[in-house]
Write a structure and sequence with these properties.
By secondary structure, the protein is α/β, with parallel strands linked by helices. It is 43% helix and 16% strand. It has one domain (3-225): TIM Barrel (Alpha-Beta Barrel), CATH 3.20.20.70. It has helices at residues 3-8, 27-39, 50-59, 83-92, 110-119, 131-140, 165-172, 187-196, 205-208, 210-225; strands at residues 11-15, 44-48, 64-67, 96-100, 123-127, 144-146, 177-181, 200-203. The protein has an 8-stranded parallel beta barrel, surrounded by 7 helices.
Length: 226
Amino acid sequence: MHSILKKLKNKIIVSCQPNEGSPQDDTKIIISMAKTAILGGCSGVRIEGAKNIREVKKNISLPVIGIIKNDLKNYKVRITPLLSDVEKIIKSGADIIAYDATKRKRPFSTIEIVSKIKNSNRLAMADCSNLDDAKNAILEGADIIGTTLAGYVGKKVKDTDKPDLNLVKQFKKLDSFVMAEGRYNSPVLAKKAIVAGADAVTVGSAITRIDNITSWFVKEIKIKNE
């Protein structure tokens, strides 16, 4: 197992990605998020945007998963869809580069994306939506398979706030490093992911998005008062 993956084994990764346009959407604040998450015991962070990745890398020594989100006119894939995105992330210093590994129309094939990542001596993380995505990603050379896009892709997008633990169990059978990601918004759910076979768990909104967290409390109180 790669030395970076050993560092992430049975650990929490914190996704420091504020909602776009929120008061938290500032590089200095993102650096603060990452450093504070490390104080809490996380073993890596997931960062979006070349500038943010570069500045976070200057301030921490733990592994960084880097992505660039692009809203492309003719494609639904958003997570590192372009070879130029990969190049920017490489130059920014990320240790792991995550990309959309779903079988959707895209400007560059996943094989091209993975090849560029691997040729740069970075680890490739496949953000998958289902078991077929993961199987294909492994064949193409991905080092990590993540459940990141489970419930967000396809004709039957799931309207749920619960993570797909069954998919984690399926991924575990594929003999690859499994990252549980997507709606793991409590310590209990993170533990369930590890029990289900995840090698690591990425947590985002429940730790770093103050606006999301506040809305959960507001919604619950409103329900109780109705």
